[in-house]
Amino acid sequence: MSASITNAMLALLGHPEQFARLREDPQSITIAVEELLRYETPIQVSIRGVPEEIEFAGRRVGPKQLLVLLLGAANRDPQQFADPDRLDLTRRPNRHVSFGVGPHGCVGGWMARFGLAMLLEQSSIGKLAFGSRRGSCSGIPVNAADRAYAAGVVRSAAS
Fold it and tell me: Is 2-156 in CATH node 3.90.1150.10?
């Protein structure tokens, strides 16, 4: 969950026009959560064993072989997403695979969505404020150029 929150806040800091639009329309938080998860995928790679021979993407894959699934790359697939490198908090449909899918999907995906929605809700009603130069997040000074504080998670630029 912390990667989802940190990635989302960094994306919003890098796209202030999207953040402003979200603050104007807090009803769009659910849609925004899905786009933020797609845009900066928290789980980049998933590895799956193959129990029996199958055809996958036009190739035969057999037992004792592994599939390495690049979820971040899949979420930027231009055949699935129009203008995939653009953050669009109103994107619909948004069938991203940030937590995998089906029975092997991440069981904590719901928790990451919930935590991210709570963060966005608090920021949309002004309890979290991020400025272009200086702002604050729960009373902690934020310099958007080199630090982002989100729900107790700190990412510092290399010194």
Answer: no
